[in-house]
Design a protein that fits this description.
The complex is a heterodimer of chains A (about 900) and B (about 120). With about 900 residues, chain A is α+β, with helices and mostly antiparallel strands. In chain A, about 50% of the residues lie in helices and about 10% in strands. The chains are: A alpha+beta (about 900), B alpha+beta (about 120).
């Protein structure tokens, strides 16, 4: 049993000794030299003693010793790490060569840095959004529980608190179920620290939210069920970012009390920096604080308000959970007070993996992005391969000389690979730096509505990926020239007299192939980018149903509560006066063209109240029709938004001690009265008659790209708004009015918080931000690819002109005109480009079909895009070929012929 | 001359060096080389220089030790000696070679009839 241990110990000892020896070459060599000298002395002495002459004695000693240099080398190899020595030699030689060619080195490193940097950055995005599990413990157990997609917005995507309770108690597949209030709006918290109130965004969550997600506060505690009881003292958890920004990271903040929304609220904890509610559940929105949802208080009667998140029990499959949920859905009630609402959620309770809900829809875009960036790296490698090849041909003699001196083929390939590895290592380091910058920038793009973006960082996986692509890139662009050179004919290379002597056709074959590959790859990228760009322009061109330009919105704080207002009429009257005052004051600001109020802005949150139907029709005819999205507006809102009305706008008197009126969207009007004018017709909703006074444009409420459900608008003198967004339309840039509008609001209401003045265009741009993000990245990659391809063409043509200087000189001496020479070079360029474009176009057909689902109103085979790409590539190719062509035509035959 | 002298098999030189050191005690490189030449009756083809690779290898494995000292005729030389681990290794390797030599001896002693390609070539 001791033997193996002995052997292992021996091996280890030997390895350590070798390593030690590797780093102590000089003393060891000196030692060996001394030893060999003594050895020879002993031998000579003995030989002399046996009767030889001194010269003969010395000769014989050396013969018996058998080669001093070999003996030394043998001993060195036996004691040290020979391969490391060779590597060291290769490295030193590489650095010397690269330093001698700073131009080549700089271009190669730059190309690699761009290619690799882009790859690392995109990998980090893909890794964070797609490959990594969500940032929660055992996140595979988390599911998002929602109804199938519908036309009635958030109200049809959420559940009532009664339904939540029933679901939680009926199902058996879940460890626990939680949820949050889906209707919290931005800037809904007003923090009063003495001066002007500060706004922040808070979300109400069910008390067990953090337990279910497995998130522990960085400081203090999470919510307990008691915090959520009706009448419990208000408590709040701060996001790490808000705590740092607003409270200077006060380490003693837990337990302190602040005036938030007029109530003394105790800070019970600080969330960890790793938890960003917005990043996970509402991309592009920053959430500053979390408050407990009063599950059994007033929210009971607010209808569908919570979204559900469950944690599966260990070992429970998604299918089991789905079956369980389906069973539970049959008995869930919208409101227990109304037994007829039980069963309302039948088959509308479907768990999906939380991860799929959050980033599932981005999968294809991310894969496309990943492929695009991979293609860039490929182009970069092809380009470098080309450069290396050009260099290798120029160094043909050097390699021939080395192999004549005894360098093996493997050794030469190794030397070339070392060069490419060194280049790619330097390129990777630079690329990594570049990626750090890109990733840091992306992580701070709060306005891009992509999930988890703020958690983006370069992690171990990204570093591993860097290493992988750096090595593969080095092999990819280093091996081909290496093999090519090592395989070269020694004799021929040595005889070759350098430029002009028509160095074998073989070198000339690989390089054009590489260029064609480059052109084809960038053609694919350009087509992809072109299609995405066209889609993006089409999206920007969509008729939104409102005019975002020169309009802006600000959240208005108001208090319309009236004590002892039994019927609610006093409250309406108060609100009417308040809103009239605000609008009159805002109207008087110079530059304000129109102003109005609404409770929910487009492309943000929304809600539905069920379906009003034409008076006299049977409700059963409309059983499966989704209700319209509901907006409560003031007079002037449509004019401020730039939404066209057929009929008339609401007035301050509508619904106020007079007939109830509504405006409806065109699609809704068309549905109910396909062949008649809806204006003047009566709808009946919840027992009230509603006179349709106008039909307005369909508004893209949920997304710019898809038409959403219908809309219905109630005057705020008739229904209660949830909030008030003041929308103004100006003749001036909206931002220039921010100060005066805020001043006016403060004048009327000193408690008006410092809310953000948001241009409506910002809402649109937020909504299209994921598309813009992908389009922008793919387009950047395509341009980079184009640049690299142009470089490649230039390199090949320029190189071939240099090699053929003599040939061209002879032709010109024989009478070829300058124009003819130039045309020949251009024709060669054009042929290469055309072959590349043709191959690229064919491949693009396939690629375009793959990204068809990412396109918007653009056919994958979009002739203008394809044509534009072909023209662009061809012109760039000609431009890249023009410079060498001109150089060729300027060759002086006499000089060219004499120079060789 | 390649025909007249034996080529050294891989690893045999190490064993010869160990054996030499085990019998001779402290001795320098030249001494080892001469001793091996004499012991083998000048039958092996030994480039004396090659023993230095063997010496450094054995040293790194901890089987021999080396130190600079003074020779009989007052020259500074590096003296090698076998260590305890070296003796163990020598015993092991020697036993192995002995067995191999015995087996080879028996196989080759089988006589021409049996030694013809019966060995499995068919």
């Amino acid at each position: 049993m001791t033997q193996p241990r002995l052997r292992t110990a021996g091996l280890l000892r030997s390895a350590l000794n070798r390593l030690w020896a590797f780093f102590h070459k000089q003393p060891l060599d000196a030692d060996l030299d001394a030893e060999i000298a003594v050895h020879l002395d002993f031998a000579i002495e003995e030989n002399i003693r046996s009767g030889m002459s001194p010269d003969e004695a010395r000769r014989q000693a050396l013969v018996r010793f058998g080669g001093v240099v070999q003996a030394k080398e043998g001993q060195r190899q036996a004691r040290g790490l020979p391969w490391l020595d060779v590597l060291g030699q290769d490295l030193r030689y590489t650095l010397r060569t690269l330093r001698r060619e700073p131009g080549f080195t700089a271009v190669a490193v730059l190309i690699l840095a761009l290619g690799i940097g882009a790859n690392i950055a995109v990998f980090s995005v893909v890794n964070t959004l797609l490959l990594q599990p969500l940032p929660f413990p055992n996140s595979h157990q988390l599911v998002w529980i929602a109804p199938p997609p519908s036309k009635c917005g958030l109200s049809c995507a959420t559940y009532s608190t009664d339904a939540y309770d029933q679901f939680r108690s009926t199902t058996r597949s879940f460890q626990d179920v939680t949820g949050y209030m889906a209707f919290s709006s931005a800037d809904n918290l007003s923090l009063n620290l003495g001066a002007a109130p500060i706004t922040a965004t808070g979300i109400d969550v069910i008390a067990n939210f953090f337990e279910v997600l497995g998130v522990r506060p960085a400081m203090g505690r999470a919510f307990t069920p008691n915090d959520a009881l009706d009448g419990a003292p208000p408590v709040i958890l701060l996001s790490n970012a808000w705590w740092r920004r607003q409270f200077n990271a006060d380490p003693a903040i837990v337990g302190k009390t602040f005036d938030i929304n007029g109530r003394q609220t105790t800070v019970i904890g600080i969330l960890p920096a790793s938890f960003d509610f917005g990043a996970v559940f509402s991309p592009g929105v920053k959430v500053d604080a979390i408050t407990p949802l009063d599950l059994y208080g007033p929210p009971r009667d607010w209808g569908n308000i919570v979204t559900l998140i469950g944690r599966l029990k260990p070992g429970v499959s998604l299918a089991q959970a789905r079956g369980d949920s389906k069973a539970a859905s049959k008995i869930m009630c919208w409101n227990l007070k109304y037994p007829n609402t039980c069963g309302d959620y039948k088959d509308a309770v479907i768990p999906v993996p939380l991860k799929d809900y959050i980033s599932g829809s981005l999968r294809r875009s991310l894969v496309v992005l990943w492929s695009a960036v991979g293609m860039i790296l490929l182009i970069a490698c092809v380009n470098l391969s080309n450069l290396m090849l050009a260099r290798a041909s120029a160094r043909g003699k050097e390699f021939a000389m080395r192999s004549a001196l005894g360098a093996s083929r493997a050794r030469i390939v190794r030397q070339l690979l070392t060069e490419s590895l060194v280049l790619s290592a330097v390129g990777s380091l630079l690329g990594l730096g570049l990626a750090f910058v890109i990733v840091a920038w992306l992580a701070h793009q709060g306005a891009i509505a992509l999930p988890l973006l703020s958690t983006l960082h370069i992690d171990a996986a990204a570093l591993g990926w860097t290493l992988l692509i750096a090595i593969s890139a080095a092999i990819l662009f280093g091996l081909a020239p290496g093999l090519k050179m090592a395989g070269g004919n020694l004799q021929q290379a040595l005889k070759d007299s350098g430029p002009g002597s028509g160095q074998g056709r073989r070198h000339e074959r690989l390089r054009p192939i590489l260029v064609v590959t480059e052109v084809a790859l960038s053609c694919i990228l350009l087509v992809g980018a072109g299609l995405l760009l066209r889609s993006f322009l089409k999206v920007l061109d969509v008729d939104l149903g409102f005019q975002p330009d020169r309009a802006a919105a600000i959240k208005v704080d108001y208090d319309d509560s009236v004590p002892n207002d039994k019927s609610g009429e006093l409250r309406i009257a108060k609100r009417r006066v308040l809103f009239q005052q605000i609008l009159a004051r805002v109207h008087s600001i110079p530059g304000v063209e129109a102003a109005g109020m609404v409770d929910y802005l487009p492309l943000g949150q929304n809600r539905a109240w069920g379906l009003p139907i034409p008076k006299g029709r049977n409700p059963n005819d409309f059983k499966n029709v989704a209700g319209p999205l509901v907006y409560v507006i003031s007079p002037g809102y449509f004019r401020a938004m730039g939404t066209r009305i057929r009929g008339r706008d609401v007035t301050w008197d509508d619904g106020f001690k007079s007939q109830n009126v509504v405006l409806i969207s065109q699609a809704m009007a068309r549905f109910f009265w396909p062949s008649e004018d809806a204006v003047g017709k009566i709808l009946n909703g919840n027992g009230n008659d509603l006179l349709v006074i106008g039909v307005v444009d369909d508004v893209r409420e949920e997304s710019v790209e898809d038409s959403t459900g219908w809309q219905i608008y109630y005057p705020m003198t008739e229904a209660t708004p949830n909030d008030a967004e003041l929308v103004i339309r100006t003749t001036l840039p909206p931002a220039s009015l921010a100060g005066s509008v805020m001043g006016a609001l403060r004048e009327l209401n000193p408690k008006q918080p410092q809310a953000e003045f948001r241009p409506i265009t910002a809402l649109v741009s937020h909504a299209v931000s994921p598309r813009r993000f992908f389009m922008f990245l793919v387009a950047s990659f395509a341009l980079l690819g184009l640049l690299l391809a142009a470089l490649g063409i230039y390199g090949v043509i320029s190189y071939s002109v240099t090699r053929k200087t003599q040939e061209i000189g002879i032709r010109m001496a024989l009478g070829a005109s300058r124009a003819r020479v130039q045309a020949d070079v251009m024709a060669r360029t054009f042929t290469l480009a055309l072959i590349g474009i043709a191959i690229g176009a064919i491949a693009s057909f396939a690629v375009a079909a793959l990204i068809a689902s990412m396109l918007f109103e653009t056919r994958p085979i979009d002739p203008p895009t394809f044509a534009a790409v072909a023209v662009l590539l061809a012109s760039i190719a000609l431009l890249a070929g023009y410079l060498p062509a001109r150089r060729a035509s300027n060759i002086d035959p006499m000089v060219a012929l004499r120079n060789n | 001359m390649g025909e007249s002298k034996l080529d050294l098999l891989q690893g045999t030189l190490d064993l010869m060096v160990l054996q030499t050191l085990a019998t001779m005690g402290e001795i320098h490189g030249y001494g080892i080389a001469r001793r091996i030449e004499q012991a083998s009756g000048d039958e092996v083809l030994l480039n004396q220089g090659t023993i230095y690779a063997s010496l450094v290898r054995l040293q790194q494995r901890g089987w021999i030790a080396a130190k600079w000292g003074t020779s009989d005729n007052n020259r500074k030389a590096k003296f090698y000696s076998i260590t305890r681990a070296g003796r163990k290794q020598l015993a092991k390797d020697a036993a192995y070679w002995q067995r191999l030599a015995d087996v080879m001896g028996r196989v080759l002693a089988m006589g021409p009839a049996a030694a013809s390609p019966v060995g499995g070539a068919q």
